[in-house]
Amino acid sequence: MAADGHAHKMLDQPGPGQIEAVVRLLEVMTDPVSHALANAPFDDEPFTEEDRQAVAEVLGTKTKATPDEDLELPRKRHKELMG
After folding, report:
1. Whole-model pTM?
2. Quick check: 53 and 62 in contact, CB under 8 A?
3. Closest by Cα among 74, 72, 67 to 52
4. What is the pLDDT of residue 45?
5. CB 3.0 to 4.6 Å from 65: which of 48, 54, 59, 69, for a disulfide?
6. Cα-trace Rg, the chain
């Protein structure tokens, strides 16, 4: 059986919730940006003070935040979302 015929046969089997998950997976698989991000090399260069200052300049603030301080807002948002 050809791959596309097998795929069509398999799409007839799952329940409604599973179809939505398959559709989302196919959307991600065929999206060029998602594909590029998935295949991008890991950035293993350290985030330097120069990088931090450049980001702060773009955001309109000068800061020497520590990594813990950098994570404070995402942690607060996570707590808000998760209760």
Report:
1. 0.34
2. yes
3. 67
4. 87
5. 69
6. 21
